[in-house]
Design a protein that fits this description.
The chain has 305 residues and is α/β, with parallel strands linked by helices. The chain has eleven helices and nine strands. The chain has helices at 15-30, 54-65, 87-94, 110-117, 133-147, 165-174, 194-199, 212-215, 235-241, 249-252, 283-303; strands at 43-48, 69-73, 100-105, 122-127, 154-158, 181-185, 205-209, 221-224, 260-262. The strands form two sheets. Strands 7-6-5-8-9 form a five-stranded parallel sheet. It has a four-stranded parallel sheet with strand order 2-1-3-4, sandwiched between helices. Helix 4 (110-117) links the parallel strand 3 and strand 4. Helix 2 (54-65) packs across helix 11 (283-303). The longest helix has 21 residues, at 283-303. Bound molecules: N-carbamoyl-L-aspartate. The site of N-carbamoyl-L-aspartate has 12 residues, from helix 2 and helix 6.
Length: 305
């Protein structure tokens, strides 16, 4: 099903395909040693035009754990982009050297454009404020592992709902699963963008809040995000909004015992360090699942079912 398929947006994948990636990811997390030959003789390129810790390193370690090799750059100022090369030309060059490309880029649509020019599969590792499909797969594996399901959940999403690509992809994907309800918590300035409101949220059950305290007691998942400083045109606007939310132990006292806290990371100050000790804090485990789900995705792209 997924053999040789690119992943630009999860909108191009059926729920069944998404679940097959998640289920294999769970299987891999239990016995990663069984998958050490999947990518033998293959090479992954990671082309990262924007900063990253988890996404790039989990892509690379995932491919290495599948038995493959990795090339790439984490700073495009060291690549021919600095000499004025277009993305299309870079892709048409790199595709000759490797079997698979994971790309992160500040421009929305960059992964889509890469896919148009590429003869080999492209995986979107984040394009501007638009999409971050492998983060969403990471999130879904974390949710499935905890709750055993991806439907009938009440999901609170808090922070920068306007610019966060992790939020954009997650809400769009979870809305495709039955009876999920969304509680969107943000300052007025950072409410979900018009497209997400019109094309997704308006078709599901959702409520908007501006305080964590008013929403936390009734949700299964609290998905925290940082305010995306790099996406603001006006840095003063960022200065005004930063620190809008800080999840503290006190606020966690209001939450259900079975609720989980998720965060794509990096954290700035939106979750206080004292909360890390709370058994409901799932974000570092989530980062670990990111590697397994990328192993699963790349396994399916290389080998099929
Ligand atoms: C996210 C991203 O890059 O969009 N980070 C990640 O990949 N884990 C979230 C963020 O930067 O806030």
């Amino acid at each position: 099903m997924l053999k040789n398929k690119s992943l630009i947006s999860l909108e191009d994948f059926t729920n069944k395909e998404i679940e097959s990636i998640i289920n294999l990811g769970i299987e891999i997390s239990k016995k990663p040693d069984h998958f050490v030959n999947v990518a033998k003789g293959k090479i992954l390129a990671t082309l990262f035009y924007e900063p990253s810790t988890r996404t790039r390193l989990s892509f690379e370690s995932a491919f290495l754990r599948l038995g493959g090799k990795v090339v790439g750059f984490s700073d495009s100022s060291n690549s021919s982009t600095a000499k004025g090369e277009s993305l299309a030309d870079t892709i048409r060059t790199v595709e000759n050297y490797v079997d698979l490309i994971a790309i992160r880029h500040p421009k929305e649509g960059a992964a889509y454009l890469s896919d148009i020019y590429s003869k080999i599969p492209i995986i979107n590792a984040g394009d501007g404020a638009k999409e971050h499909p492998t983060q969403t797969l990471t999130d879904l594996l974390t949710i499935k592992n905890k709750f055993g399901r991806l439907d009938n959940l009440k999901i609170g999403v808090c922070g920068d709902l306007k610019y966060s690509r992790a939020v954009n992809s997650l809400v769009k994907t979870l809305s495709k699963f039955k009876n999920n309800k969304f509680i969107m918590i943000s300052p007025k300035e950072l409410q979900p963008n018009e497209l997400l409101l019109k094309d997704t949220l308006s078709k599901v059950s959702f409520k908007q809040f501006d305080k964590i305290e008013d929403a936390i007691s009734d949700i299964d998942i609290l998905y925290m995000t940082r305010i995306q400083r790099e996406r603001f045109d006006d840095i003063l606007e960022y200065e005004k909004l930063k620190g809008s939310y800080i999840l503290t132990r006190e606020k966690m006292d209001l939450a259900k015992k079975e609720m989980i806290i998720m965060h794509p990371l990096p954290r700035v100050d939106e979750i206080s360090y004292e909360v890390d000790e709370d058994p409901r804090a799932e974000y570092f485990k989530q980062a670990k699942f990111g590697m397994y789900v990328r192993m699963s995705l790349m396994n399916l792209i290389l080998e099929g079912e």
